Structure formats: C-alpha cells, structure tokens
Structures
1.
Amino acid sequence: MSKVRLGIIGVGQQGGTYAGFISEGKVKNMVIGAICDIDPAKKEMCAEKYPDVPFYDNYIEMIESGNVDAVVTCVPHYLHPEMAIEALKRDIHALVEKPAGVYTKQVKEMNEFAASKPELTFGIFFNQRTNPLYQKLKELIDNGEIGNIRRTNWIITTWWRPQGYYDQSAWRATWGGEGGGVLVNQAPHQIDLLQWICGMPKKVYSSVKYGYQRNIAVEDEVTTILDYGNGATGVFITCTHDVLGTDRFEILGDKGKIVVDDSKKITIKRLNKPESDMSDTMSMHDVMKIFMGGNPGDIYTEEVLEFESVWGGQHISVLENFAANILDGTPLIAPGSDGIHGVALANAIHLSSWLGKEVELPIDEELYFAELSKKIEEEKKNPIK
C-alpha cells in the first residue's frame, strides 16, 4: 500500500471538510477511496465535486467494496462505536470522530474489540492534541516546570450557538439523537485535553443547566468542580450562550503557574523557590515588601510563548498521522482507546447533576445508561423541538 484509501462515512460539515483536504492533495499518503451518506442530496453533490469517487448509501457495502483501506466516522455520536466495530471486523482501519461515543459502556465495547485486532490502526480525531500550544503545555506539566498541580481552572465559553443552529437538524441537541449538548458536541476536545495534560479527577460535582438559554432538552451551561484525590482541585466551565466568549486555562503548581489565553498564548510564571519554602522562610517584613511595590523578579520569572494556528492544519495532521501509522507504524498521536477518558468525564458531569451529588470515577456505567435511557424516553413523550 503506497497511499491509504479513506472511506468517509457522512459527508456533512466534518466529512465534507476532510474530503476537501484530501482531494486538494493536502494530506500526505491519503486519497479518498469512497464516500457514504444516506442523504440523496449529498450523492448529487459528490457526483459533481468528486466524480471519480465511488458513492454508497450503505456504509457496510462501502467497507466491503474493496475500495477502502480505512474509514472515518463523521456521523451522529451514538453511531461511532458501532461503525468502528463493523469496520474493524472486516479488517478495515478505523478513525473515530470525537466523542468516541455517548456513554462509556459502548466505548468500552469498541475498545475491547479493537484490542482484539492489534494489527489494525484504531485512532480518534483529537485534533487539538496536534496543536503545538497544547503539546507544549503538556510537555511543561510532564517535565514538572511548575511542580505538583494544586488547582486547575478552565473557562471555555467560545461556543456561542443561536437557536437556529439547534433547529437545523432534528437530531441536534437531543438525548436520543446526540446524547447531550455542549459536553458531547462542542467541548470534547477541551475535556480530553484537561485529562490528557492534568490527569483524570477522582471525583466530580457539577451544576448543569438543561435548556437554560435555548429551547433544547440538553445542557447549554456547565460548571463542574473536580477533585483529583490528592488535595488538588479544579473547576471546568463551559456553555453555548456566551456571545462574548472566554477561553482561559490556568494551572497552579507548587512551583509556579501557567495561564493559557485564547488557545494562543502561554504565560509561565516560575517561582524562584517553591511556595511552601517561601511560606516557611519569609518574614512578614519580606512579605510586605512583595505586596507594597516590590520587584516581582524577586519571587518569580516570567516567560510568554505565543502560537499561531492555521485553520485545518490540526485536522490534516491527524489524518496524516493516521495514514503514517497504517503505512509504517508511526505512533498515533491519539490512539482510539484514549477516547473513553473524555466520555467518562462527561458522563460523570452529567450523572452528578442528575443525582444532585458528588460522584466518583469510574462511574457506575449501568446507572449512567439507565439514567440516560430515562432522558431519552421522557424526550420521546414530551419532545421540546
């Protein structure tokens, strides 16, 4: 195999974007093998844009056609595990869109099946893991630049969506069609980055508002307290109704603090001595000097790193990395099995709000599925839109 023939399942916004990148030759070692969609209008569009690419309205037929070596699942979230398993069963490599699924029970089934096919490539589309800024941030934390983490705070509210966004498709913002709101649609990348960089919390307590500022059944406002189990805590805030939007990620350690602004700039403040040493050795006279116009350089140094992000570059990097793993075994930036962590954290946030109490991770998968099923049945009886 000299180039990976990718089958794109679902040619909506994401699938259409990937098809464009590949057809324009922007993805090394990859071509479009086939496209699949159940919408007849998409078939007409693809006939015009990609006349030489086979088109299917049944994804099983596509993966059995001999036209594809791998697939990417650009479909509603519930279908990701099912489609990945069907592809892997037929010895077709699978790249799963985020989130890996709606609930951990189905994602675990996918991971276990993928583990039985180690010769196949199984990846997840966590394109933010290819973002140089977040790669640098992970390196800083892993290298102990600010010591042990004491607190994390991430407010990410740059997801403004008007009512028309939710009204454009019947499956959007429903429990039965999408499995949730901002936690499963807009913020999965940040939820993944939070645990990838700072580790998984041990407990979660959340306040979640459902249909708070939009006429929807699912969440559009989330505030969560994270307990890492070693004294460290965190706060994660996200929503889809803040038209002004904020993206600010702070990590406080015992040797300094890192602040990420707008996913563009990292400010690193490194303490000259660990905070605990300062507390043990400084006199109140020394403390007063700091807070009354003292020289900040006496207690910390500051470094600012700025990054430029080219739109689409991260998505292309994931596709290229996926192809490279198939062709020559290059390590995956985001192995498919990693997808369960973000789903587990999102599930915990939901479950805490549904039960009105703190929940421990890993959560009770059966309880979560039962509670989600109740939401789906209630939605069928009393649809909001």
2.
Amino acid sequence: MPSLPPQPLSPLDGRYRAAVAPLADYLSEAGLNRARVEVEVEWLITLTESSLFGTRPLSPEDKDRLRVLYLSFGQAEIDWLAEKEAVTRHDVKAVEYLVRDRLTSLGQDGIAELTHFACTSEDINSTAYALTVKRAVHDVWLPKLREVIAALWHLADEHRDAAMLARTHGQPATPTTMGKELAVFAGRLERVARGIQNSEYLAKFSGATGTWSAHLAADPQVNWPTIAREFIEGLGLTFNPLTTQIESHDWQVELYDRARHAGGILHNLATDVWTYISLGYFAQIPVAGATGSSTMPHKINPIRFENAEANLEIAGGLFTTLASTLVTSRLQRDLTDSTTQRNIGVAFGHSLLALDNLLRGLGEISLRRDVLLADLDANWEVLAEAIQTVVRAEITAGRSQITDPYALLKDLTRGRRVGAPELAEFVRGLDIGDEAKERLLALTPAGYVGVAADLVPPAR
C-alpha cells in the first residue's frame, strides 16, 4: 500500500489540534527550546550585571537586542536547531550554539564565552521546564478548569431548588436538589484548583553535580549560590539549592498528582451527567447540523461527556506515569526523565481536550424539572427515613410507645413501592403526637430536601 503524505501521529496534533493549540506555545519541543534560549540569555545578562571576569553591565538597548533572541523565536530558529542537533546529537548544546551564533550577528562576540557558563544541561532544562509548565498551567490549563468550575457554579445556582431523587448505590434514596449535587463537584474542583494555583515550580542552577565546583574554580571569591538563587527567583521560580545533577522533580510529581486528582473529579462529573442524561433528567439541546447517529435520526448522543471521560482516562494514566517515573533518578543522574518530560504536553493536552468538551457539554444541556418531579412522585417510600426519625424523636419525648421504628418502616417499605395514600394511612395509624403526625402528612418527596438549596453559594 502506498504511503500517505506526512501525517500527525497524535490526534492532539491532528483531529483535536484547535482545542489544544495554546499548549503548544509552551509544552512543544519548540516551546521548550524557546525557554532554553531565554534561560541562556538571561544567565548571560546576569553574569555581565555582576561584572564578572572583566565584563561590564550591558546597556538597556543591548539587553533588549539579546532578549529578541527568545522574544522573536520562530521558524528560522526551529529549523536552525533541528539542523544543528542532527550534528551535535545534543539538544541543549544546539541551543548554546544558536545563542552564540546570534551573539555574533549582534556584534557581541566579547561575551560569547559566557554563554552556558559553568552550566550543566540540567541547569538549563530544569529552569526551562519550570518556566514552560508554569506558564502552560497558569495561562492555558488552569483558566479552562476555572471556566468549567464557573459553569458548574452557574448551573448549581440555577437549579439550587430543583428537587431530585437521589440514588445511593443506584437505588432511590433521600431526595436532594440538582443544584446541590452540581455544587458538590464545583466545590471539590475549586479546592484542587487552589492547590494547583499555589504549586511551586522549582529549578536548580548549581552545575554538574549540584556543587558549584566549576563556578568556584573560575572565581572562588564569588558567592555563586546567591547569584544562582537570585537568578532563578528573578524568573519567578523557586530555587532548589540541594540537588544532584538534576532538580529532583518532586514539584512535578506534586503537580501531576494534583492534575490527576482534578481529572478524577472531572471524570466523576462526566459519568454522573451522562447518567442524568440517560435518566432523562437533562435534555440535550440540539446543535444545528449535528448528527447523533449515522442510522438513527432521532438520537442526540452525549458525546461531549463520553469524549471527556476517555481523554481524562488517558491524561490520568499519563499523569500517573509522569509522577511515578520522575520521582526517581539513579544516583546523581540518569536519562529516564528526558523522554518522560517530553510527554508533559501530551498529558495536559488530553486533559485540556476533556475540559473543552465538558465546558461545551455543560452548555448544551437543559434540566427537565418535570421528569425530576415525576420520578420523585413515583418513590414515596423514600420518606420512610423521615417517618422513622420522627418516631424516634417522639419516643424520646415520651409521646410514643413504639418499640422499633426502624423495623416498622422496614417491613412497610423494603423492596416495595409505597404510594402517597398508603403512606398517609400508615402515618395516621402511628402512635405519635398530633403535631408530628401533621408534619409527616404534609411531607412529600419533592419537599424532603432539607437545606439542599441553601448549601449552594450565591451566584458568582
């Protein structure tokens, strides 16, 4: 069979490209290389600011010209690096040569030897990864998660008083409201989002085995750990002074565990909304021109939630692998993290795709309150909990001689459907006070929701 024209192997770079494209600015190979150039340039500027080895601080204009190296990083630089790496067989060395080449074109040969000065590749990599992952999370992924959370809070507020039959273990249970149930998901996600927002992004800048040995050999009078700390913190990152050749990646493990946790909650949301749709609680709003089934014209399939579910499972698997792999490095350095970290974008890509589908899906459903009420009206036996609880209170108050109220209600309702007339007749025959009896007779499944509506915070 003849070969196809060059095609993307990953669906993230093909079918789903539009939904995940913003992540590529940070978590692609080009995004990583741009950040590496940024680190090299800023380190070069830092060294000259300290007037090391007879250099003088650069003028603001010269700094701006140097920063153009990463601010205008584009296809020419991407192609240049690809050609150079084919020769060097080393990605970070290719970046160093690119910076040197651009320094020559800017007439800055005098400081070229300070490019990558006293650095190991992992000084550049740990800083570049911290920058790209932080920016991807804060600029792209977290805002999309917050959009989903906001959509949930909006729906929770809208449906705060929409009484609904609960289903614990899949069986009819004490009623709740749809708003309260959606608020549960919003609250869970908001808590995890706060943890992600406050995540640390660590980098090291201490040389081949984390000892600043080469730095001190070049100039033993300089406080290199302080210069390194100020450099890393100046980039908006957290400095890790105690490392091997690599920064230990524990911040990444923590972040990916949190992202996986958020994905687990979102997966729970997707399957629950899917179930509510299958029960008829939510109607799906038809999208003009869309096809639900290739053979059944009436169908509107809950594809947004199914797509989200699948992508969250893929993302969760990748986040788990990232966390479990990156936590370990043999002795002072091995290379397992290199390939592993190149899949960070894949994990966040599938997660972002899921968020996009959930956001769309939540905007394409409409609550069927009539279905919720009909379901409640068909399950009066859920009031058994209220009745036996009231009887217990009456016994305690000395207004009833009933000996086992739970067993009494169990005999009446377990495995049986009990309608409003049968339940009313049962209540009238109970040995309890008149006020309690009237309170129970006035109760309906739709009214037995406690303070569910009040648990939903005010509209945001």
3.
Amino acid sequence: MKLFNSFFIKVFLGFWLVTTAVLGSWLLSSNYYDSRPPRPGHVGEKPDRQPHRAMLRMLYALENHEEASLVQSIDIARERFGIRIFLLNAQGEDLLGRKVPRNALLLADKLQGQSDRPSITAPGRRLTAHRLRRTAEGPISAVFMYPQRQRAALLNLVGDNVWLRLSLAVLVSGGLCFLLSRVITTRIQHLQVASRQLANGALDTRLTVRSRGGDETDELARDFNTMAAQLQERIQAQKRLMGDISHELRSPLARLRVSLALAQKKPAEHQQYLKRIEQDAERLEALIAQLLANQRLNAKLEDTIDLGALLEQLCDNARFEGQQSGKTFYLRREIGPAVVKTHADTLQKAFENILRNALQHTVDNTTVDVTLSNTEGYRVTVEDHGAGVPDDELDKIFTEFYQVDRTRSPTSEGFGLGLAIARRSIALHGGRICADNTASGLRVSVQLPPDIAVP
C-alpha cells in the first residue's frame, strides 16, 4: 500500500494541516495588525495606554534614524498608510523644511503646554502628537495626520480586541476540523448503516467502493462486501439445504405411510408391505446418518493414518463390489508410506465416498484409475470412465443434495451428499477438492497440504 493511501497518514496530515493553518493564520493576522499604524482614536492612542506596536516602531525610527533614513520612513508612512508626519522643533519649524499646516502647529503648541499626546479632529483628518528627542535636534514634536479613509469597522474591531481574534481563530479551526471529521467519518457512517441493514435481513446490502487501491476504509468496505456476499451465499445455501432435506425426507415418509395403510387393509400381504417399510426406514436412516456426518466435520486432527494403505483398502472394497459388473480399480502409488494427521475416520469416509461415486458412474467392464503422488503435499486423483459432468456443474457436484441428470447413471440411488461430505472432510485437513472432465470420463482431484504429513 502506498504511504499516502494510508488512512492513518490522511488523518495525521489532516489534523497537522489544520493546526498549522490555525497557528499560521494567527501569526499572520497578528503580524498584519501589529505592522499597520492604528486607526485614529485607537485605544493605544489614549494617554493612559501604551502606544500601538506599529507606532512604537515608527516613533523609534523618528528618534534614531539619520536624515536619509528618516526621510525614507516618513515617505513610506505616507505612501503605504496615507499618514503625513511632521517633526517640529521648539520654534514650530519642520526639520525637513516642509510647510507645516496650521492644525499641526496648534497641536504642537498643546504638546509644548505639557499635554500628553494631544489630538484634534480637522475636516477630513485627525491629528495626534508625540514628544520625541533626537540626538542632534533635542526635544521635538512629532505630529501625525491620519487620512479620512479608515479600515472597515469589522477589521478595526478585530484589530482592537485580542479576544475577538482568538474567538475567530477558534471558529475557523472548528469549521476546518468539522469538515475534516465529516470526510473521515462519512465512510464509517456508511459502513454503520450497511451493517444495520445487513443485521436486519437485507442480505443484498453492499457498499460502493473501488475494486482495488484506496486506503484502509476502502479495504474495510471491500471486506464488508465480501463478508456480506459470503453470508448471503451461506444463508441461501442453508435455505436450499433445508428445502432439499424436506424433499428427501418427504418421499420415503410418504411411501411409509402408503405401505402402512396397505398393510392394514390387506393383512394377507402384510409381509410384502413390511419389507417395503423396512427398505424405506433404512433409506431414512442412511440419509440421517449422512446428514449428521456432513455436519460434524469440525474436529481437531489428533490421529494418524497411512494414506497409501487406506487407498489400497478402499480400492479392494470397491473392486469387490464392482466385480459383478466388470468394474475394477487400479491404484498407482508414486510414493512410499504417506502418513498424515487426521481425525477418526474422516479421511476414510471422504475417499470412500469419492471411490463409490466413481464406482456408480463408471460404465461396466472399465477400470477406475486411482493415483497417489507427492505434489506440493499429497495429491490423489480418481478418474472414471463414465459420461462426465457438464462443465457448468463441476463445482455444484460438491454441494449438498445436488445430483446430476439421472441419465448419467440411471441406477444411482444416492442422496447427493457423498461428495459434499468429502469436500468438508478435505477442507478440515486444509486441502481442496475439484473435478474436471477428461476424454474418458470424470476426474476428481484431492490436494492435501504438506503440513498434515507426519515426519
């Protein structure tokens, strides 16, 4: 996964950028207000208050800069902020030789009269004065003439009140964090809604997500879709299983009921009907036994068995059963002893069902080839000489109660559980089972992992 596709990195960078934006905006706004002269009437211009920072810097420059720098500072104040500055000596003359407005002279006289930072309002302007002392000229009066144009009221209010600036920064950071949180939690909220819908029985609930890539939330959404699909498939399989079980049980029970009724009506022929009842009862018992075996394949592998010896025994049994039809089994062992871990007789039932399936479907006077080899573990193949299975049904033959068309084996009387039991048993051992068609029939292949082998 790429670094910037990580959900953690996105959250980290998001909060980091928000924090940086808040701090940066605070510093920039503070620098903006501190670098500009105050508006006329600013609280910092009142006699009992400390002058504004920008004014302090400007007053320092007026007191200490040489003439060239002094002229430059005065020109900058006029060009950038529209403030005209006059530096008057005790005789009311400007140090730079400029003509001094009458209002400026009146304000300088007030300052000479011991007034602390006096100010007056003239048409279109407001004037304030400060006492300064230059090394060469001695005590002087600095008169500031502010322009009529002022900043907007909101900017003035924000610049004058530090708490308002702090509140504004909190609001901005809150808005950014809200947007970031919405982006982060939207996918989680979608997942929460989908989970509730799935829990309420909407098994077709899915999340819209890209097929690959993305961050952890995309992976979580894909995992949810996979889980929902598997859950839907399994619940539907359970429903089909219950329907199939009901169907399989209904037929022998119906025959039992008919046979019992006929035996009661025709006592003279009760032996015939009792025999039929016995056959249907045995069929029910066999069906229930296979169902139980199919549901109990979940135990631990605590026993051992020689796979080669097991296959030899099962091939002998199948060869004995098929001798009347000319059906035989040939086992080819490409390895010696193959001892594997198992549980009870689970592997025996699995391979017995596979061989019985081959015995039922191979044609008369043919040989079923069984091969045991060492290929990435142990591999067993069983190849018959029957009609095969349609390609689109190769996976379905391992599901419960699934039976191929009876024309493949008209004499078959199975329940469609044998290969399903084999599949679950092989899965218990960590292996896999599959089927494919060959030129002569059907081949069932079982692959067992090497980690169940006993050294």
